[in-house]
Design a protein that fits this description.
The protein has three helices and six strands. It is elongated. Strands 1-2-3-4-5-6 form a six-stranded mixed β-sheet. The chain has one domain. Helix content is about 30%, strand content about 30%. It has about 230 residues and is α+β, with helices and mostly antiparallel strands.
């Protein structure tokens, strides 16, 4: 199953701030390159500036993805964050009730296209989220037993996953006559744990029939942690 999320990181203040910082660093890098160009080969400096720009864009994309994955659930933008949307996609793709009579269809990868604070990213780039592991463990429910006075045990779904985020940015050729484009590829690996969906509500407490289907909702949001980051090709 392949899904595509568009402009998932826009409008969040943290994401916008990170990108603005990246642009500031980019301007500083360009200024430094311009000064150095007075005593160096112009073509080489143009290529170096383009490489620096692509490297900063690559880093800014990773920082925005990290921010959206690690957003606090109390944040007003959490519903639109990657942390929330990916966890829900994992649950929906691995929930047996969603595939009655068929097989589970786990997520293979997600392609992202981002826009930050109305800024258009004109460099050729790609952002792919590939799942190395994903699991949804289902438990319950157990119906209310009035003879024993025991409350109903809710149905729960515990989530965990391991995901690699791959970002590629193309470094444009310095001249139209020379095709020396380069690709910068970087990867960050994240692990997700602690996410729980449940049908636990006050209204469901005294229901005796365990086969009754109730809506599931987040009761524990879980957390994403970055475990590694590297530039694999430059």
């Amino acid at each position: 199953m392949k899904t595509k999320a568009f402009k998932i990181l826009k409008t969040t203040s943290g994401a916008s701030l990170i990108f603005v910082l990246g642009i500031m660093l980019l301007l500083m890098a360009v200024s430094t390159s311009v000064i150095a160009a007075a005593s160096a080969n112009v073509g080489a400096n143009v290529r170096q500036r383009q490489y620096n720009r692509a490297l900063l864009l690559n880093d800014s994309i990773h920082r925005n993805v990290q921010h959206s994955l690690m957003m606090d659930p109390s944040d007003s933008g959490y519903q639109q964050s990657l942390a929330n949307q990916i966890a829900r996609d994992i649950y929906n793709a691995n929930e047996p009730r969603n595939f009655a009579g068929g097989s589970i269809a786990p997520i293979e990868e997600i392609e992202l296209d981002i826009a930050i604070a109305g800024t258009i990213i004109d460099s050729e780039h790609s952002i792919t989220l590939e799942f190395l592991f994903q699991e949804v463990r289902i438990a319950g429910p157990v119906g209310y037993i009035p003879e024993l006075g025991s409350a109903r045990v809710p149905r729960t779904a515990s989530l965990s996953a391991r995901m690699v985020v791959t970002v590629t940015v193309e470094v444009e050729s310095a001249t139209v006559l020379r095709n020396d484009s380069r690709i910068i590829t970087s990867q960050a690996v994240y692990e997700y744990s602690g996410g729980v969906f449940s049908d636990e509500t006050v209204e469901n407490t005294n229901v005796e029939d365990p086969d009754i289907v109730f809506p599931m909702a987040f009761t524990e949001f879980g957390e994403w942690k970055m475990v590694s980051y590297e530039i694999v090709e430059s």
